[in-house]
Design brief:
Radius of gyration of chain A: 21 Å
CATH architecture of the largest domain in chain A: 2-Layer Sandwich
Largest interface: A-B, 73 and 66 residues
Structural class of chain B: mainly alpha
Largest sheet of chain B: 2 strands, antiparallel
Oligomer: heterodimer
Largest sheet of chain A: 8 strands, antiparallel
Structural class of chain A: alpha+beta
Radius of gyration of chain B: 23 Å
Distance between the termini of chain B: 31 Å
Number of domains of chain A: 2
Strand order of the largest sheet of chain A: 2-3-4-5-1-8-10-9
Distance between the termini of chain A: 43 Å
Shape of chain A: globular
CATH topology of the largest domain in chain A: Creatine Kinase, Chain A, domain 2
Strand content of chain B: 5-15%
Strand content of chain A: 15-25%
Shape of chain B: elongated
Strand order of the largest sheet of chain B: 1-2
Number of helices of chain A: 13
Helix content of chain B: 40-55%
Chain lengths: 353, 195
Amino acid sequence: MVMRIDDLARQAGEWLRGTGPENDIVMSSRIRLARNLAGKPFLTVASHKTRAELEAQIHKALDQVNIGAGRMYISLKETTPVDRQFLMERHLISRDLLNAEGDRGVAIAKEETVAIMVNEEDHLRLQVLRSGLQLRETWKEIDRIDDELSARLPIAFHPQFGHLTACPTNAGTGMRISVLLHLPALVITRQIDKVFQALSRISFSVRGLYGEGTQASGNFYQISNQATLGKSEEQLINELSNVVPEIVKFERHCREKLGSEQKGALEDRVMRACGTLRYARSISTEETMELLSAIRLGSHMALLPDIPSRTINELFVSTQPGHLQKHEGRALSPQERDLARAGFIRGKLGEKH
Amino acid sequence: MAHVAQPQKMCEVCKESAATVHLTEMSNQHVVLERHLCDVCAAKQGLIGKIQVSLVSELLGSLKEKGKGASAKDADLKCPDCGITYAEFRAKARFGCARDYDVFRKHVVGLLEKIHGATEHVGKRPKGAIKAPPPAAPAPPPPAPPPPAKAHKTPAPSLAELEKELEKLVKAEEYEKAARLRDRIRDMKPKKEGS
């Protein structure tokens, strides 16, 4: 069956299901690999003609690689801005690919756990994304796909510098590991800065939900490796695998403390958030993220047993501007979006009478 | 860099999302304009990209101060393949093609050291590059603890000789051969920390 963007809109990505290990705190594990074809200019200087050739060559190779069931290839030149925004909000394409021009695309498979971007900053950006903390499984899968692809395409590789990338910050393994964490208790108890300081001392970077340069809305934080050269993929994964459980433990500790020492205040925060989400008639993205964060915390602390965590996870993405417009089937002004967003949330969380 | 939390200002463009990108435009050292945008609008205006570029550019700049200073000659260094000059690379902080890494090599090594704290790749290699002549090796370099000096059977040339040969191959851009030789050299060397 040929899948299309509209089919994606009817489902939610696997990584939002909240099924993986430590899913009360770890939303997702993601690994991406940057690759370029040998003997071709990078996209920084590639002509339109070269871009088109690259996309065709890579698309063809991708067709021969087992990237999983339900595969589709989306040629982004032929998509609308709303579709591209929609794909970015689902973490299937990057903002760079959204904003780029000319021939480019993305191959998606396996319930959105695999996404391979073509003609982003590098010729190829492979991504595997999974629910919860599953770095080793994620690596196993992307390693296999990379092997299959690199057996079919000549990859730019240097004996000293490793995989060659357009930006020197990605050279070597070309690998960026990101773990998306939900850390509301660390924020409420004002411990989050400690985490940042500790992480930056050991060379990990912290970013918001939608990557580089974004605010940590909804108390989501992406922890990633900074260096990509000089360490093997396994080493990089081990390092992150050692760090993440520490943060998870710290967040859990703060949740327990909140639950015992500030129970009333916490319940009030969660219930007010729930009330607003259930009754609001107009609500911005930012407020939505903040309130969803509170009810996500409440749900995992058994304060809101009637809302499944999967519903909450999905709302973080499905209330984004691109998703709302896709859902409504037309472009909406910011004011219209706020109205539509409130209506959409009421539909999902059920207005109580 | 993501700056986090803090009281929120709204984006001046869409007035919908919180402003996360704060810019101060200067002219003759006077503040001309202060701008507060959300990341989406900032990206639309190409501002986020600029900020990232400037980080690498900054590193490149600091390298210059530290070293003897990139001479005008270096700025004119030009890649015969993609046509990018070193000056252009510095401005954009993006390479034009794979060959730039060798063309600008003497600057690249320092830059990589600054960014990654390392200059040598130790991870996996593309399948195609190693699969060609030798029979398909089942796995990339296994982390198995090697006996300290597992002598090769061939009347082994010295490490120094091999390294010289490697340099030659790199210069000649015989990367596949070089990659294999490199691994051979690595196997000969005593293992360093963190295998």
